[in-house]
Amino acid sequence: MIELFTYIGLGVAAGLLAGLLGVGGGIVIVPMLTVTFAAQHIPQTHIQHLALGTSLATIVFTSIASLRAHHARGAVDWQTFRRITPGILFGTFSGSWFAAALSGRFLKIFFIIFTFIVAWQMLSSALPKASRQIPGVCGLFATGSVIGGISSLVGIGGGSMSVPFLIWCNTEARKAIGTSAAIGFPIALSGAAGYIVNGLKISGLPPYSLGYIYLPALAGIAVTSYLTAPLGAKLAHNLPISKLKKGFAVLLILTGSKMLYGLL
Questions:
Q1: Domain count, the chain
Q2: Which helix (H) or strand (E) holds 256?
Q3: How far apart are CA 133 and CA 119, in angstroms?
Q4: Straight-line distance from the first to the last Cα atom of the chain, in angstroms, rounded to the nearest whole number
Q5: pTM above 0.90?
Q6: How far is CA 148 from the centre of its chain?
Q7: Which structural domain, as residue segments, surrounds residue 56?
Q8: Residue 127 has pLDDT above 70, yes or no
Q9: CB 94 within 8 Å of CB 61
Q10: Strands, DSSP E only, in the chain?
């Protein structure tokens, strides 16, 4: 029951974050899943991979709900979405194959470093100035590949990278958040597929796993996140996003510090 309520609570948080900040919620889901999986006595060698794969699988559902809500408000740049998606798919799927070959400890260290970088970015409001336009096909493919590749290594929807990129390219902030929510869908779909394929050949995974995706956690998180993402999108158009990001940054610092302490 404790695990079930944990998954439900994570789904609520993931949905709100997806709609509110344009992130997939994975940056909260991954560390919480690592704690929960450890409590379930899942082998340490598999915990981080399972957390990443399951996180990306939940973002498939979160991103659908979030992008629909933002689309209803006219806050998604579909032209940019279509042009960046090929690079996103390539980078995320390739990244998931690369992640499967890495140790869980390395992936955890990489996640901690990424968490602190995102927290610094949010606290300092270190967004690039809108100084250029959306690049061409090759530029978007390269950008999408980088965003997708890093996202697959940390189990997120890529909002912490795609939102600053879009703002740098003269996209209005709320449309950048909405477009980022849409971009999270191909990231999650391709990444989840990669973790499934690479996990099918692994022995010692817990029952009810599909590759590196733990289905009970996916079910609990997906249902509630799908329901709460539209609420987050609605709040994004009515709340001071900059202040909310600073509060979220503090949460990230605490989360990253706890994971670092566990490693040491």
A1: 1
A2: helix 241-263
A3: 26
A4: 30
A5: no
A6: 10
A7: 2-263
A8: no
A9: no
A10: 209-210, 213-214
Integer CA distances (angstroms), 22 to 37, 42, 164, 213, 252, in order: 27, 31, 11, 23, 16
pLDDT over 70 (residue 18): no
Q: Is the pLDDT of residue 105 over 60?
A: yes
Where in 16-131 does DSSP place strands (E)?
none
Handedness of CA 56, 59, 63, 66 (dihedral sign): negative
pLDDT of residue 119: 86
Closest CA to 21 of 70, 86, 91, 84: 70
Above 70 in pLDDT, residue 241? no
Q: Phi/psi at 208 (nearest 5 deg)?
A: 65, 30
Rounded to 5°, the CA angle 124-182-230 comes to 85
Helix (H) or strand (E) holding 184: helix 173-199
3 state SS of 127: coil
Is the pLDDT score of 170 beyond 60?
yes
Instruction: State mean pLDDT over 242-261.
Output: 82
Q: Looking at residue 1, what DSSP letter applies?
A: -
Query: Which pLDDT does position 90 carry in this prediction?
Result: 96
Which of 46-50, 66-70, 141-145, 178-182 is least confident? 66-70
Which band of pLDDT confidence, cut at 50, 70 and 90, is reported for residue 110?
Answer: very high
Fill in the amino acid letter for 18: A
Q: Which two tokens stand for residue 45?
A: 């060698």
Region of residue 203 (phi > 0: left; psi between -120 and 50: alpha; otherwise: beta): beta
Q: What is the DSSP letter of 206?
A: P
